[in-house]
């Protein structure tokens, strides 16, 4: 039997500690050590060998690493790991801007090292089943994707606004479930909490295949909401990624008896079905696929190039909000 993969972790914040928990649970993976420059974070590492620098972590002899650090630090961490030949999963977003993201893509390509991005929503059971059903044509021709991602401000975020930190989830998942890149974006942002970064964005976009997209993202709501709705000519699929529930609202076929309603020749209310689907933890699924990719086994990962494309759309949203104009997206 081959030896376990030796794993490292950079960053012992909230997300880093989640990664540590899951990495320790994976079969044939050994979490060797974690790196964090903050003494208080290392002191609270719960028995994990904790070092101060990425170099010290690399010197432990690791096969793979998860980088769960603030977005502005991704470039330096990625360069060091790529140069050392360590396969790396970088938490989303890949970088704070497209230029930096491009340099990370080039670094891993130059050294011939596996790199991927931690867009965890792709591994949510509700979205995975939604994507499968869309591919089967279960709601027919697709018209629209609407996402709502709202909640209170998380104090752990210090270096980004909602466009980079939150909307990148919706940008990536929308392109992924529809199989289509973005064609144009138009956005408005707001600053209501006194921070230098935006805390609200409302965006309308069009995909290359003609699907209309709406994203509503904020850190101003007292309730937490993570909803993706896809509308087609046969009905709607609604994914709640907090509960991992997927619900189908069917376009009914019964003729309307009420004359006022019958005058509208569009959809009618039909059956509603909440699907019973397996609900494994998304982070466990994501890291299992990452480990499989490192071993050279069949796997699903979010490539660095896909991470770059998401950062480019996020930048286009900010550009549109600043200029007040629709931004055409071209790659």
Automatic annotation (TrEMBL):
Domain of life of the native organism: Bacteria
Q: Tell me which InterPro entries the record gives.
A: Gfo/Idh/MocA-like_OxRdtase_C, Gfo/Idh/MocA-like_OxRdtase_N, Gfo/Idh/MocA_Oxidoreductases, NAD(P)-bd_dom_sf
* Provenance organism: Actinomycetospora rhizophila
Q: What is the lineage of its organism?
A: Bacteria, Bacillati, Actinomycetota, Actinomycetes, Pseudonocardiales
Mind telling me which Pfam families this protein's record contains? GFO_IDH_MocA (PF01408), GFO_IDH_MocA_C (PF02894)
Q: Which family does it belong to?
A: Belongs to the Gfo/Idh/MocA family.
Location of the Gfo/Idh/MocA-like oxidoreductase C-terminal domain: 135-329
Please give the name of this protein. Gfo/Idh/MocA family oxidoreductase
Q: Where is the Gfo/Idh/MocA-like oxidoreductase N-terminal domain?
A: 6-119
